[in-house]
Amino acid sequence: MNKKIIFTGGGSAGHVTVNLALIPYFIHEGWEVEYIGSKNGIEQELVSKLQEVRYRSIKTGKLRRYFDWNNVKDPFRVVQGIFQAYRIMQKSKPNVVFSKGGFVSVPVILGAKLKNIPVITHESDLTPGLANRISMPFVKKVCTTFPETEKHLSAKKAEYVGAIIRDELRHGDATKGYTYCNFIREKPVLLIMGGSMGSQKINKSVRKSLDELLTNFQIVHICGKGGVDPTIKKKGYVQFEYINEELPDMMHMADIVISRAGSNAIFEFLSLKKPMLLIPLSKEASRGDQILNAESFKKAGYCEVLQEEELSENSLTKAVNHLYKNREKYINKMETYQGQNAMSKVIQLIKNEAK
Ligand SMILES: CC(=O)N[C@H]1[C@@H](OP(=O)(O)OP(=O)(O)OC[C@H]2O[C@@H](n3ccc(=O)[nH]c3=O)[C@H](O)[C@@H]2O)O[C@H](CO)[C@@H](O)[C@@H]1O
């Protein structure tokens, strides 16, 4: 009988793209693949494109660090989600569960634990997220992207594997990117990606400096859902809410990037050797994981960092021009980065645990 794996993870694309990188391998190897996510999350949108994967939705609650009336209702949703996940495990009988974290993964992991199904999780960031911290006692292994993360985890469970990069990102075609954006070859391209959901702060700041930035660069701006400003029509400036199939072409076309410091995005840029200006999400809006991700990259010489509090018209254009001028320095440093062959390590761990 074929082996079966259930993937989970969601809330933002950063909790889905690692799964999207792994899923084709298991399908190719003849495994049955299912995915548990929320009903209307980004994971549903991204995974529903994969015909071979059965998608099942459960109720889930968000784990917020701030006051919200939903905080009262959400624990009940999580409990309902645990029962739903338990029933799925009972019917589906997977050999193993792989979780990429995010709040939808907590009920799935608990449901799997109740059925004694082994779970492996993956932590993208330098410090473990809340969902992964809650789930820690119930999982067999936690795969980490940064070596520094191991000190935040139990030594028995932590496995440093490195970053998992979707294979298609390596096969982008810059020429297609130029055609798609109607850009010319003679002027450098700046790609701006404020994380998978866009960043209002970065969008605002870029737009204030747009004319100045456009004197030196053509700009692809990924603005996030609802973030595109249709009133701005300028030569050499294109905006998107989110890019799917064309992202590899856009990444290959870019000379330099401005990005949030979400772990998947920055390792993708690193693997393609794109000099980065990172603007991490502030401590006010997060646990500060992106600040640590960015610090680690800066220490390695891969990027420039501009903290959100320092963001202004002047500081942004100055930092972008400085990055472009010194691009060779960052590229040379990135050339020394050795990928950890994370994909095969994770696949081996999953196979070892699959009952
Ligand atoms: C606000 C928030 O909570 N952010 C977290 C979230 O970020 P976020 O969801 O932004 O995740 P990442 O930056 O790590 O990854 C974004 C992923 O989306 C893809 N992408 C993005 C834009 C686009 O148009 N098309 C596309 O395919 C990127 O290629 C990448 O694979 O998860 C990350 C990984 O745990 C964390 O480090 C971030 O702190």
Summary, kept brief:
The protein is an alpha/beta fold and about 350 residues long.
Describe the structure.
- The chain has 355 residues and is an alpha/beta fold.
- It has two domains: 173 residues, Rossmann fold; 166 residues, Rossmann fold (3-Layer(aba) Sandwich).
- Helices cover 40% and strands 15% of the residues.
- It is built from 14 helices and 13 strands.
- The strands form two sheets. Strands 3-2-1-4-5-6-7 form a seven-stranded parallel β-sheet, sandwiched between helices. A six-stranded parallel β-sheet has the order 10-9-8-11-12-13, with helices on both faces.
- It is globular, with a radius of gyration of 20 Å.
- The mean pLDDT is 94.
- The site of uridine-diphosphate-N-acetylglucosamine (UD1) has 23 residues, from helix 10 and helix 11.
What is the fold's blueprint, element by element?
Elements: E1 4-8, H1 17-28, E2 32-37, H2 42-47, E3 54-57, H3 70-92, E4 96-99, H4 105-114, E5 119-123, H5 130-135, E6 141-144, E7 158-160, H6 174-181, E8 189-193, H7 200-208, H8 210-216, E9 218-222, E10 237-240, H9 247-253, E11 256-259, H10 263-271, E12 276-278, H11 289-299, E13 303-305, H12 313-325, H13 327-335, H14 342-353
Helix pairs in contact: 3-4, 6-9
Uridine-diphosphate-N-acetylglucosamine binds at residues 12-15, 17, 124-125, 193, 195-196, 222, 242-243, 247, 262-265, 268, 281, 286, 289-290.
